[in-house]
User: Fold Pyridoxine/pyridoxamine 5'-phosphate oxidase from Chryseobacterium antibioticum.
Amino acid sequence: MENLHDKRKVYEKSQLIESEIKQNPIEQFRDWFLDASASPAVSEANAMAVSTVEEDGCPRTRMVLLKEYTYEGFIFYTNYSSRKGKAIENNHKACLSFFWPNLERQIIIKADLEKIAENLSDGYFHSRPKGSQLGAAVSPQSQVIPNKEFLEEKLKELEEQYQNSEVPRPANWGGYIAKPYEIEFWQGRPNRLHDRIIYQLEDLDWKISRLAP
Assistant:
């Protein structure tokens, strides 16, 4: 067993103060996301953890790529029949989390999820490389399969079938928009006195508060 008591880091790269933040959390997210995207130390700024609650009441978290964000919310794509899709169908709330350790920053988003319009899912699906389109059509995501060859054989069949034609978007594949009602921005600080600013939606306005670290 390894003792991890002494594994700690001093956070001192930046600070988060009320006089400098945006009044709208999406604008604050945009500023931080652009910083992360421009940093050579961050390989995938749009990688986020998505946590949903399954039927047994236990949260389940997985990494997903953010594909778009607007003032309305955050958009990602998945298989609607997957474990996350089924969890979202039963409980429309989810938590999104971004962590950029090299910037000593974290964002936690509580949101209500909705499917986006089918034409928007169509547009994104057909903008993907053909290999990714075929992969989405082949995989019965989250289901038990007999072996790896099962998928490889199905992929070969679809490659031949759609060699000279467009791959149709599977009906059970598409996008969700996560409409936030709470967004917390965390900035690491020395002595563990981290900055935590939380935006909470009240009616149509965002209330801004500071949380103790």
Observations:
- The chain has five helices and nine strands.
- The CA atoms of residues 196 and 212 lie 7 Å apart.
